[in-house]
């Protein structure tokens, strides 16, 4: 199962055994989209201030490197704040 999560979060591009690439790409996109929408809902100005390229880089880094492990998208915001504190320290 770790291979699935690592692929979906962008930690690896190695396709885990038993999964199709199109299906996992869709999951990866949905996880990034969900996290992005939750963070942007709390900080709508952040995306505009960073610009699209930097915003997407930040969100990909968050999804890949954060300690976010809750199945609830509502918990994303608190982990995003903690992620920023850890990475900017």
Automatic annotation (TrEMBL):
<dbReference type="InterPro" id="IPR018640">
    <property type="entry name" value="DUF2063"/>
</dbReference>
<keyword id="KW-0238">DNA-binding</keyword>
<feature type="domain" description="Putative DNA-binding">
    <location>
        <begin position="4"/>
        <end position="84"/>
    </location>
</feature>
<protein>
    <submittedName>
        <fullName>DNA-binding domain-containing protein</fullName>
    </submittedName>
</protein>
<dbReference type="Pfam" id="PF09836">
    <property type="entry name" value="DUF2063"/>
</dbReference>
<dbReference type="InterPro" id="IPR044922">
    <property type="entry name" value="DUF2063_N_sf"/>
</dbReference>
<dbReference type="GO" id="GO:0003677">
    <property type="term" value="F:DNA binding"/>
</dbReference>
């Amino acid at each position: 199962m770790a291979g699935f999560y690592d692929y979906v979060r962008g930690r690896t591009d190695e396709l885990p055994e038993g999964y199709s690439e199109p299906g996992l790409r869709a999951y990866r996109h949905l996880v990034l989209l969900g996290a992005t929408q939750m963070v942007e809902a709390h900080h709508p100005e952040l995306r505009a201030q960073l610009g699209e390229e930097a915003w997407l880089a930040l969100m990909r880094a968050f999804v890949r490197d954060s300690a976010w492990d809750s199945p609830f998208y509502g918990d994303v915001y608190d982990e995003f704040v903690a992620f920023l504190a850890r990475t900017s320290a």
